[in-house]
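Inputs:
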Amino acid sequence: MNLTRLATDFAGIRMATPVMGASGTFGFGVEYSDFLDLDQVGAIISKGLTPLPRAGNEGVRIAETPSGMLNCIGLENPGIDVFLRDILPKVRKEAPNTAFIANFSGSSVEDYGIMAEKLDVDGVDGIEVNISCPNVKEGGIVFGTDPKAAAAVTKEVKAHTTKPVIVKLSPNVTDITVMARAVEKAGADALALINTLTGMVIDINTWKPLLGNVTGGLSGPAVKPIAVRMVYQVAQAVNIPIMGLGGIATAEDAIEFLLAGASTVAVGAENFVHPDAVVRVAEGIDAYLEKHNLSHVSELVGKVKIG
Amino acid sequence: MNETKKLVEIGNIVSNWELSADVNALVLECPDIVSVAKPGQFVMIKNEMGSTYLRRPFGVADVDKEQGLLLLIYRKAGKGTQELAQLDDGAPISVEGPLGNGFSFKNEGRTLLIGGGVGIAPIIYTARHLSKELDGPKPVILLGVRNHKELFWSDFVENFAEKLVYTTDDGSYGRKGFAIDAIPDILKEYPDIKHIKVCGSTVMMKGIAELAIKQGIECEVSLEKRMACGFGVCLGCTFEGKSGKRWKVCGDGPVFDAEEVFG
Ligand SMILES: Cc1cc2nc3c(=O)[nH]c(=O)nc-3n(C[C@H](O)[C@H](O)[C@H](O)COP(=O)(O)OP(=O)(O)OC[C@H]3O[C@@H](n4cnc5c(N)ncnc54)[C@H](O)[C@@H]3O)c2cc1C
Ligand SMILES: Cc1cc2nc3c(=O)[nH]c(=O)nc-3n(C[C@H](O)[C@H](O)[C@H](O)COP(=O)(O)O)c2cc1C
Ligand code: FES
């Protein structure tokens, strides 16, 4: 893999490749060390952190669906303080060269500011503001579906951090460009889209929902065309860089996102199925650049030909 | 903790045959995983040609380290396993493992191994390990099955058992009733039993765990939860133990001390 072709600066976060491990699917990164070389991971994006530890939702949390899966984990995580005390030092020791982005959410605008300030430490290269978890009240979805609230959260976070701020958008809205513009105006340095789409599965033997939380978030290949469309629309609407995700399994999938206007991508559920996916996708992008005589991945960004 | 490196290996199907109307056996050639797999661990497999998305978890039923062969025994439960049952010899399967921590083994006393339904699968390797690899007293094996059509398990465990006891739901073979009903007699006959290891339904394991705890016998249970990843990153499989600690069935288990789960 030719890392000079792939090295990317994403809103000030320096990454070896433009391919990251998506929040909630990549642990804290080090869990993947048996399967891939962490130095070749663009960035590790942490599981969603919250102000206090969370046990997550009761009952079944995972359901397979056609070409994808639903989850209703409910933001199980050890809480930000344990993360900072126990987990971050371990990650920095085991993956010293990989960019690390902390994903987090809260239940009030103030929560977001407090969390941003706590995360403003060495070893964290950027922060990803989750206003789009569909599975819990505290997952920020109330902020992710209302442009005013989304802007308020973004402003609050920006006021409490020196790190690049990525705001992660929900696809569960009528017009995602309205949300994108609102958080750009509020000072976001970059956008990530999409989070999961709300879905539901019913067990026809029991007549009950399969998931403990009744509904869950859909991800995997099934959502990819929706995500590509949203990245394309948002890229037309804003001037800040975009991390595209949703259903990426291969380099070809990732390249679609780049052409649509994302300057980086993240791999989510595919990591569960093929735990070397993040590196395999980067290698495939590199091979594509080689084949098309391109000298840097940025030459693909937004190059979709319309009309 | 599982200190061995987790691997993904393409294992060709060596054989895939029917044991009963709804249970199949599958032998895969995956020498690297087999060389480090321990009793009670599991693998996540994917038929890359199939229509399902996530990997599927299966307990390591047995291994042949010399030939690099892995035995899985699976119930044709849904789409993934039904597609698996259609595959011919030579078909490639992606195998990820070994995952989780297996059973623990101590150098004293006899072990009672109990399996219910396809939960019997990991009992096979565990029995081989106890009787052949550790060379200790052979385990007593108690199997709970539905009826006399499910006695195929004998072929897999007979040689490793001091005594093999069946219970059937309908009384068509062995003792009628649940596995737990047979335990008092077994303990009377084998007072040297110091450990119980169970893999089966939650109801079965709960009952047996409570009995073991009451009698002061060390008991380990092997849990089952829906898993997306199998190695600790999706958090689909977590639960809160009696100590208040949160565990991942995939990474911290699937084998747990019965007290922590049912105590
Ligand atoms: C650690 C572990 C070890 C296991 N070992 C064995 C074994 O040795 N032999 C065996 O026959 N079965 C075993 N199972 C259960 C086996 O994983 C499921 O029966 C299988 O995944 C069903 O797949 P399917 O596509 O046929 O069913 P579907 O119902 O179509 O599967 C849909 C989804 O639900 C999940 N799922 C369905 N049933 C179960 C279940 N009972 N437990 C966990 N996930 C489930 C599947 O993995 C998949 O993600 C084990 C489960 C776990 C967690
Ligand atoms: C099991 C699971 C847990 C997730 N947890 C989080 C989370 O904590 N925070 C977050 O912002 N997104 C979370 N996501 C969303 C993913 O980061 C990603 O946006 C989404 O799954 C779409 O990408 P994919 O189709 O590649 O999985 C989670 C997704 C899954 C499947
Ligand atoms: S199955 Fe993913 S954490 Fe256990």
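The helical segments of chain B are 31-34, 79-85, 121-133, 153-157, 179-189, 202-215, 258-262. Flag for discussion at group meeting.
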